[in-house]
Design a protein that fits this description.
Blueprint (H helix, E strand, L loop, with lengths): L2 H6 L6 E6 L6 H12 L2 E4 H10 L3 H10 L7 H14 L5 E5 L5 H12 L7 E6 L2 H15 L2 H4 L1 H23 L4 E5 L4 H14 L1
Parallel strand pairs: 1-3, 1-4, 2-3, 4-5
The protein binds adenosine-5'-diphosphate.
Length: 203
Amino acid sequence: MHREAFLNFQPKSMLNLVLFGPPGAGKGTQSQKLIEKYGLIHLSTGDLLRSEIAQGTELGLEAKKLMDQGILVPDAVVIGMISHKLDANRDAAGFIFDGFPRTVAQAEALDQLLHSKGENISGMIALEVGDEELEHRLLLRGKNSGRADDANPEVIRKRIKEYNDKTTPVADFYRSQNKFTSVNGIGSIEEIFDSISAVTEAL
Ligand code: ADP
């Protein structure tokens, strides 16, 4: 390598956060605040899927059938969407992954995608909120969000069950890499954000 090229070489250091927590934990709210503070790009698979539905794409039509029942859509679908977004934002300061990865297969795929770009996950921050509070928050949100999956208590319980069965193992995946921190998700939006910021700055 040329000496000059070597001196110009700057290791990339994106801030890549996985925001983790059950449906209704407040990931979307806290993501918005993190974006403003740290200049990150928000990648929410839920939002990406809802945008496919709004555009009436084939992918959206297929995903809607599952989402309306509170069931996860196939790994390959969400991994493909994330891969496109990573490619489209090569110069980003970093990303917030919200609602992704939701299965261990997705977490492994995300590691591979990032490694192939010389990047990795900086850390996972989990918002801890009990099941009863979640159901309450989601039913309340359903009154305004217009989301079919928020309006029906049965679908809400199914989403929480999917989370407990398929998504909680993702926390162990990051724990085993020493990248896991949990934060109390009950309190004011500002209090919770202060805790998340403190964790982020210690990464
Ligand atoms: P919430 O976390 O509040 O349940 P999201 O907007 O993140 O809502 O997701 C809504 C629905 O979209 C999920 O119930 C699921 O059907 C689908 N979904 C979102 N992200 C994923 C993902 N990473 N893997 C599989 N399905 C997903």
